[in-house]
């Protein structure tokens, strides 16, 4: 019991994932700044933001909405992200527990933050938040099927094993799945799914700050917004780690391989940041079409290739 | 030493005092991440463009953790520019009430600080500090981005 709470709160859960995600968030902002020929924020900037929101700012409750649900939604989102972090990072760091990281459980846990954002935005009683919430719903409807197809492809590729632990072991025994044609196709699809899950720029319509002024988060201030920021940091670490686990062969924790493990996550975040910085925001209709037609097509093609053994 | 020199000396002394003054963890975090909400009154757009210039590569205010946010609920600094006429006054008061405290208010440009050439106008409802408390004034028509950065630095030291 005590060790479970340690897993959830300290390593690899809340504290570890939050701190690593904070540094990755700084990396993301710094790369963005370098792309735009700026200097960028100092390395501790995400933590300044978080503690300022948590400790200094006032929390304002909506008058026309439901204050309880409005306040509970960020707590649920942190909970979902942390649970996903625990279940993804335990197999990655080769810690054996009773639970071996079932991919379907991870898939459902990863959707909890998005659903919490929707509930919180609809509970705030703000029309712009409602617009953001409906956009987030449409975005979830479009990318979830594609993400499930990617996971199905990975499961097929490693001989119908559902647990993350044996997927990583299979790749480490032979070669990473990205070394094949179908692996490359799955990687491309998964990168776009992660981009949509993190609501980064081509798919940031739920929180478009120019048109609906942060959309789903418009009414949040103070400590609840700090929790949302924490969720975003954790997700920025967890989703690239999941991708590293299912397609890039996971982490190895001895000698020089630690460096490669870090570089895998940094490389994926770099890719996400570059996509974010070189694309405009698209309309929700275009996003649905992009995922439901093109990305699903590529994912199905990859699955067919896997069935033929490529 | 004449009067003006002594003034300069005093301000430098104050600068070092503020630099070495012990600050708590909370106010340190607050100073390091000021998020800015931009309220444009009946502006001629010159100040707006100079404010946006501060966020461009040449002056990059994100170095100091300053971000432009879209919602007043996330803001720590309320930038007000342009002359405030009778209609803007209601909006400005409402925006100020919606902001989570602590909030710092900065009046930018001659119109925001004093009213400028509109001070005698029939629809003019007073400079910003007659409507809401102001923490820093950045005069100029429009102020250069360097002047805005200098004003922000003084505001950070005051906060």
Key descriptive features of the protein:
heterodimer; A: 310 residues; mainly alpha; 11 helices; 70% helix; 0% strand; B: 159 residues; alpha/beta; Rossmann fold; 5-stranded parallel β-sheet; 5 strands; disordered N terminus
Description:
The complex is a heterodimer of chains A (310) and B (159). Chain A is an all-alpha fold and 310 residues long. The longest helix of chain A has 31 residues, at 127-157. Helix content of chain A is 70%, strand content 0%. Chain A has one domain. In chain A, α8 packs antiparallel against α11 (284-307). Chain B has 159 residues and is α/β, with parallel strands linked by helices. Chain B has a single domain (24-158), classed as Rossmann fold (3-Layer(aba) Sandwich). Chain B is built from six helices and five strands; from the N terminus they run ααβαββαβαβα. Chain B has helices at residues 3-20, 25-32, 46-53, 86-98, 109-113, 145-158; strands at residues 35-40, 67-68, 77-81, 104-108, 136-138. Chain B has a five-stranded parallel sheet with strand order 2-1-3-4-5. Chain B is globular and about 45 Å long.
